[in-house]
Amino acid sequence: MTLQRDLTINVSKFQPEAASDEVKNLNEYLMDTMKKGPKWYDVGAPKYRAMRANGETIFPRPIVLDRGRNISMPSREHGRNIPCRVMTPESGVEVKAVFMHIHGSGFVLSSEKEFDTVLAKITDLAHVVVVLVGYRLAPEDPFPAGPEDCFDAAEWLIDNAKEEFGVDLQFVGGESAGGHLALSTYFHLTTSRPTFNFSGLVLNYGVFDLSFLPQVYHFQKRDTLFLDKEVIEYYRDAFCPGMSMAQLRHPSVSPFYHGLQGLHLPPAMFTCGTEDCLLDDTVMMAARWQMNGGTAVVRILPGAPHAYTLFPGDKCPEAKEGIEAGCAFVREMTK
What we know:
It is a single chain. This protein is an alpha/beta fold. The chain has helices at 21-34, 40-43, 45-53, 116-126, 145-165, 177-192, 214-218, 229-239, 245-248, 279-291, 317-333, and strands spanning 69-74, 81-87, 98-102, 129-133, 169-175, 200-204, 268-275, 296-305. Strands 1-2-4-3-5-6-7-8 form an eight-stranded mixed beta sheet, sandwiched between helices. Helix 4 crosses helix 11 (317-333) and helix 5 (145-165) packs across helix 6 (177-192). The chain is globular. The N and C termini lie far apart (42 Å). 44% of the residues are buried.
């Protein structure tokens, strides 16, 4: 076809045959495993968090590295601090920036203590200090508690990172719900700290529309592949209890609906696998970013499921590819 195209997509990335054998096997394993195990919404979030910490879910028990350290930051509530986990490079390379990282798990699960191996990869490959925020979780603390903790942490880092770590805050990012919170944090800072801007955002398989984009409704597998409409509805309803569809589409709840015109959009990297019910969130948010003058680097991982970056590289080569791409982006954007 010789017609001019103003928007192009590498269609080959979305074809089933583009997926590696390793990730196809991982997806089969995930579907078989998830239908056998307990669901967090059946056993309750507190019990399931304990099960995750003990390696009693589809993920192995988290590895805690001696090189990580715990710190806390003040919150907007007098007397309450926000726990955080800090990881710095082992290689002795020059560190030039702080990367504020926000974990996923549906606004309901996990903590700042469960991602040391991922943080170590990021800090070593991207040459940054990584600060993982331990924000409050639903259903005990629904919206806006978690986002407010992320906002408070970012503002503290803007004011104190240079003194605390020797370098300034330049990046924010996260996975899934963490991608949502990272993008929401950027939007919050455009009004609370208008003279500040990030050097870049790293948004892996983010959920940007809590009223759901079409892929959520049409993603169908033989069994649940990590995340589907039913599972994500439980997470959303815990985070946003009783909200109407109109409320869910408020920009403070779903950053997909935030206005972008007039903003000095920092470069953003978006990644997602094709076997993820949140694929539309990545593709459509990245398109909006570019339509409004921002630089969006989009990496589509054929066959990769939701949370692909958290799986071992031998089981999911796409995990290594995605993490390395994100770290290369950070190195290139660091000032």
